[in-house]
Predict the structure.
Amino acid sequence: MWGAAGNRGLYLEIRKDGDQLVVYMSDGTKKALPGKMIFAFVLDGNVQISSQCIHFCAANNIGVHWFSYGGRHVGAFSEGAGAVQRKNRQFQALQDPLLKARLSEPLCQGKFENQVRYLLRLTRVTKEHKRSPEVGKGLESMRTELKQLAKLNEIME
């Protein structure tokens, strides 16, 4: 099981509670993850992780990887098997269609949102220029599909 933490606009904190790792979000919600079933944490953006959690990850060969908001790799803490064993585990994990869908959904949603923003910027309405009806219909269609993609994410969780 991969533990991914990081949502734009949310503050996240990861703490250890017994044999569980608990993700606390800024809106007050929390999600407990069974520590023995996690292979790695991928932390994206504004995330804090307690030293007890890092010690637990080190003792149980759980990798921790940090990325900036822009997607730049900041650092990693991992111990364990070499590249061949890791690639074999990744290959085996990616045979699961649900996992593939869960991994691809945030990527697709981000790319889709960026495309909508780009088109809105290109077709910005000003006093001199009005957005054509065809572009307006296309943007509305894209927004509808974006909502459908968000619903799909809710179903998968």
The mean pLDDT is 82. The first strand starts at residue 2 and ends at 5.
